[in-house]
Amino acid sequence: MSIVRVTDADSGEFTSALKELSIYFGRLSEKKGRDLTYNLLTYGCQLNEADSEKLSGMMASMGLVKAEDSGNELAPADVVVMNTCSVRENADKHLFGNLGVFKTAKKDDPDMIIAVCGCMMKVPANVEKVRKSFPYVDLVFDSQQIHKFPEFLREAVSTGKQVARVGDIDYIADDDFFPIDRQRKFRALVPIMYGCDNFCGYCIVPYARGRERSRDFDKIKAELEELAALGYKEVMLLGQNVNSYGKGNADGKKFADVLRMASDCGFAHVRFMSSHPKDLSDEVIELMGERDNIEKHLHLAMQSGSDSCLKRMNRPYTIKDFYMIADLFREKVEGGSLTTDIIVGFPGETDEEFEDTLKAVEYCKFDAAFTFQYSVRPGTAAEKLPDRVPQDVVTERFGRLLELQNALAAESNQKKVGQTCRVLIEGISKQGEGTYTGRTISNHLVNFTIPEDITICGDASLEGRLAMVRIDRARPYSVDGVMESLIDE
Ligand code: SAM
Ligand code: SF4
Ligand code: F3S
């Protein structure tokens, strides 16, 4: 594997492919007498979401318009792109099932284009299956080559043949290379690094996303300054392990430098995902405590509370190390929330090891947790480990963990009752008319109403506005409140 930096000098082919495709789609649109649409399906984490904002930006540059939301995720469009994830269980069944759904649509309209990309397309068996069993798929490519999407698409369109481009070069193309179609008015997703070098035993990401590579500090700074000037209220700095930012870069900048610089740009919220316990520095935690606009929320995957299990997982820290970070966070970041990922049923997990996980959850009092049942990923080290845990044991352990964690989450929400919190509003709540939704700087989800005596000017969805909300009720996964005032007028 090698790492290649994509520079402006490489933009010639990119730009000419975009131009040629916009001519091609323009003619097709005239022939059909309507706008051409695209349907982009995104699975997985925020890194895939960030990639999809680029894919969407490129398709808009080709003259395609986003298909209207019909409520059917699998609605056919002139161009369908599936940006896949390998972490979710049954991801393969999902993808192959969905591809089957588009077969009839493609038969009815041979001009339709179907492309599959993302993390699943780095697994050779998946690529082979698409090539053999779904010959009507026009294009397959991996996440590392997203900057080559227009070139690959041009080739598929001009040859009429299936194009599969899955390589072993880990490219890093900077954000300014792409037209980006940001999906949220208030939140900008900003990847600061790609790939992962940690090779946790269960995880496919290092294979799917390649070696760790960090963006240039000055380029991130320029992008953040532009986003702040455009009025974005929240920025989310992304990477599989943001705390090891800078590895291989010459300027010696660390993640704390990126965080401080992002905070200096003046956003209301600066968020980041994800952190690995082995790389998180005290300086980052101190910054979180000191700066009002850096989120008071740390997502720190624990995975297991047992040292022996952590060792088998290739997670190089002990549970004592983890407790020290948790304690420092609670001490330095007042009112902060600590969330985590936990895997139940990793190969060889004994009753005692699982009990240690429950103890650790009790100790850390996580405000929320993503809990996973271990499932094997072909090609990972854990695939070869003996002593798979029987499913009935996993189910029983998982239920116990969930019960404990749900009680802790409810406790965390209960602590918010009676407080008045600053909330960044995300829009109208799913709870219905007159209710809005947003997040506090500690990442608590808040649903709230607005008293009749407060008049709202501007966009009625209030998306991206800041408000003070009095919290009056805790629910299992959120809190309810009443707005006291808008504070950004
Ligand atoms: N880089 C992030 C970190 O280390 O915090 C994690 C990213 S991973 C996409 C999200 C979570 O998926 C992991 O923390 C782990 O708990 C879970 N996960 C990954 N592979 C898994 C597997 N094979 N079975 C069960 N859970 C898995
Ligand atoms: Fe996967 Fe571990 Fe990398 Fe996270 S740090 S992406 S869990 S290998
Ligand atoms: Fe999934 Fe890839 Fe993210 S495997 S979780 S989309 S990095």
Provide structural commentary.
The protein has helices at 11-32, 46-61, 91-108, 124-133, 149-159, 205-209, 217-230, 255-264, 282-290, 307-312, 319-332, 351-364, 391-416; strands at 2-6, 37-42, 65-66, 79-84, 113-118, 139-141, 163-165, 169-173, 187-191, 193-194, 213-214, 234-238, 269-273, 297-299, 337-344, 368-373, 420-428, 435-440, 445-449, 466-474, 479-486. It has 489 residues and is α/β, with parallel strands linked by helices. The termini are far apart. Strands 3-2-4-5-6-7 form a six-stranded parallel β-sheet, sandwiched between helices. A five-stranded mixed β-barrel has the order 17-18-19-21-20. 36% of the residues lie in helices and 22% in strands. The chain is globular. The chain contains 13 helices and 21 strands. The mean pLDDT is 95. β6, α5 (149-159) and β7 form a beta-alpha-beta unit. It has four domains: 2-172, 3-Layer(aba) Sandwich (Rossmann fold), CATH 3.40.50; 184-286, Transcription Regulator spoIIAA, CATH 3.30.750.210; 296-415, Transcription Regulator spoIIAA, CATH 3.30.750; 420-486, Nucleic acid-binding proteins (OB fold (Dihydrolipoamide Acetyltransferase, E2P)). Bound molecules: S-adenosylmethionine (SAM), iron/sulfur cluster and FE3-S4 cluster. S-adenosylmethionine binds next to β15.
